């Protein structure tokens, strides 16, 4: 039997703890142990960004981290972007309005990258948006409607203030 | 974003509508194959051949079998004995193909052993303990060597590396070449790339011994998948149930995965345990069998002094890798648009499909049309340069005019409709072409390499795959139907049922929009579900840009039957003829008698519960199916190679402006406009999205993406660090200009658009790069025109000092 290590991670606001092998990646922990399957595996070598989650508010590649490295940290996945009342967040709704997705596979990572951008830069330029999602690959959209969606979300969030 | 109102006068079709699919994906509630967890599921890891060509001398599995959590080790010897070869697209019965190699491995990355264990990690641990002894064999990686009779043979039993070769002559080609005052000749090469979805291929399978049925969940986009799976497993078709309610994380043609599924299904049945295999990225890039065309073109054109093109000669040599599959047929689809959008009355086409010791080729967006369009468009630019004629004037001279449709091309297909000149004019206006030329010229004066590229290309759509019998006379398939079942339940709710999976094309939105249009009910209230393969009506899956046409047409046909039934019930109960019934929003009145009316709910209740009020002979319940054969289908090719293939032809023109940094050779696409005409767009946001995405794929193929092989047959770009997928920083903000020339062959005038963008982008970019290099007297005719290639060409030209700059 592989040796197991305890981890305690706050995932989407809830404390989660488990005994995991040292080699278990964070994305496999989220998907297989916690069954949070919204986070996707694309390349497993840190390029495509499909597995992006927020670690203490910053986007990271969950395929390049071990679960044990997240011990004591705060993780937000795409499931955690959805408001508790089951409605869509402004960003999620804007992705639907602008059709900023097709197959939906890269979408959770795109949402994480975009939300992190909007949290830090409420009124981003197109260049800043492209830069923020530049580490997330999409093969369906050619990025145009994703950029439109993030712009739309920024405008709507500004109106709400 | 699309306009709130339909520009075509429809109620829902063409109007801005949110898709049905998006909400589940933005909340992380998609259901991809990797999300499906079957109780007690076991996992597969693969041992792949490290050699391009080798005899498998021995396999020692003892240590692996003793490793923790391991259930089974499967080799090719058992697998090839217990299953049958995968289907072959052309008549080459000796080129058999199995998921696991037996005796000989024919490419680096080919699967040799499969290990089943409790977890993927344990399966990988055990896979490392398997000792395979190989004896390397000669190999061939260059298709021009592979075609020679004395080359190493990838499949000696076949007797040659050539899978298909034929010389088609349509029209008086030699006469045209004899008489024309001008000729050009060029060689262009389309590099080996693919659409590379972010989700790799995956499959989970479970054998139910009590019911003797195999259940399969897979990330697939493949016609006749359940049938091929059952045949390979030697099971009756009704013992295989493929579940189509699996979200597919991108495909663009390549998610075939039939070998993956036969392997996993065999293991699930053999072991009596649910088994899953998800490719990792390297398995996908090397052994996933999803590389695209890798094609050399020798092009010749004969033309008059005024630019009128008389004839083309096209020789195409396609390197399909180590096995056949459907890949040779990717040389067949271009027959349906072999002269492009141009009035060229004589064409010679000589396609050759050849095997090498590389990863096999699979269907990629456009099924061979994008490379052919690239070759034709490079030829057009060469003709312009030869004549000193403006490239746009030359195109306008040869583009078919609106009044020439329907237009029969020499190879036998009829182009349904088009207005190419207007689309080109609209695109030129959108980009302000004269200003763009001024911008390029000003940039050149400051020492920059700047170029404008234009392409005018066709997207054959509707998926009448008559290239199959054309390339294989033993295959007499002429049926390419799709279907839909529409149900109205007792509560009055509508459900549309389709029988295929989707990979982002928005088919649920398509079906609900079309049903809503016909029945005048809100599409948002219409549910669309996917039947499994035993419950589904026949579908040929989303290939060949066909679903707006075929699934849209089938859904409309079924909805119309429902509407007719409702009217029949109303006429019977209101004591009038069907012709006098007026149908609005699902409710009916008698013309001239607004008080004589029945509501949707009343009509539905009669259909479901009140047989005493039903007209005689009408089936109770309220459901209708419609199975639609592809328009223009049902005809075999003639023996001399004339074939009516695709029914509908979408048109796209790309105008792109690039600047190349002379110091680093980095190309930047600074302006990009695409004029697009795919007839009536059922959901413009979806069509635009696929077009933007197709352009991004085209930019990748033109500038970045290449499956590169070493001389000893090793894939050198098996990761995303060396196979470069363009990001939001490489893809420019593209503007699309729409135009609508309805198709006369389809239900609402729609044409296909699933391959849009990809079919014209590489051609336009290649033309832009060459325009930028023209002042150096340099050119490149090979894709991808990557930065390192550009740097070498620019450096060599600058050193030679040949340029006029």
How is this structure best described in words?
The complex is a heterodimer of chains A (161) and B (805). Chain A is an alpha+beta fold. Chain A has two domains: 4-81, Beta-grasp domain (Ubiquitin-like (UB roll), Roll); 90-160, [2Fe-2S]-binding domain (DNA polymerase, domain 1, Orthogonal Bundle). Chain A is built from six helices and five strands, in the order ββαβββααααα. In chain A, α3 crosses α6. Chain B is globular. Chain B has three domains: 33-137 and 201-278, Aldehyde oxidase/xanthine dehydrogenase, a/b hammerhead (Aldehyde Oxidoreductase, domain 3), CATH 3.90.1170; 364-465 and 644-800, Aldehyde Oxidoreductase, domain 4 (2-Layer Sandwich); 481-628, Aldehyde Oxidoreductase, domain 4 (2-Layer Sandwich). Chain B is 27% helix and 23% strand. The longest helix of chain B has 28 residues, at 547-574. Chain B has a seven-stranded mixed beta sheet with strand order 3-5-1-13-10-11-12. In chain B, strands 7, 8, 9, 14, 15 and 16 form a six-stranded mixed beta sheet that branches. A four-stranded mixed beta sheet of chain B has the order 19-27-28-29, with helices on both faces. The model of chain B has no long low-confidence stretch (mean pLDDT 97). Chain B is an alpha+beta fold. At the A-B interface, α2, α3, α4, α5 and α6 of A face α1 and α18 of B.
Feature tags:
heterodimer, A: 161 residues, alpha+beta, Ubiquitin-like (UB roll), DNA polymerase, domain 1, 5-stranded mixed beta sheet, 5 strands, 37% helix, B: 805 residues, Aldehyde Oxidoreductase, domain 3, Aldehyde Oxidoreductase, domain 4, 6-stranded mixed beta sheet, 29 strands
Q: How do you describe this structure in short?
A:
By secondary structure, chain A is of the alpha+beta class.
Q: What are the SSEs and their pairings?
A:
The complex is a heterodimer of chains A (161) and B (805).
Chain A lengths: L3 E8 L2 E8 L4 H8 L18 E4 L2 E4 L12 E3 L1 H4 L8 H9 L8 H14 L5 H7 L11 H17 L1
Parallel strand pairs in A: 1-5
Antiparallel strand pairs in A: 1-2, 3-4, 3-5
Chain B lengths: L21 H5 L15 E7 L5 E7 L1 H4 L4 E6 H7 L21 E2 L5 E7 L2 H8 L3 E6 L6 H4 L15 E4 L2 E3 L2 H7 L2 E9 L11 E7 L4 E6 L6 H9 L6 E4 L14 H14 L3 E4 L2 H7 L7 E9 L5 E13 L24 E10 L13 H19 L3 H8 L8 E2 L5 E2 L4 H12 L1 H13 L3 E13 L5 H5 L10 E7 L5 E5 L8 H13 L7 E4 L16 H28 L6 E4 L2 E4 L2 E6 L1 H10 L13 E6 L19 E13 L6 E11 L6 H21 L30 E5 L21 H13 L13 H14 L5
Parallel strand pairs in B: 1-13, 11-12, 15-16, 21-22, 28-29
Antiparallel strand pairs in B: 1-5, 2-4, 2-6, 3-5, 7-16, 8-16, 9-14, 10-11, 10-13, 14-15, 17-18, 19-27, 20-21, 20-26, 23-24, 24-25, 27-28
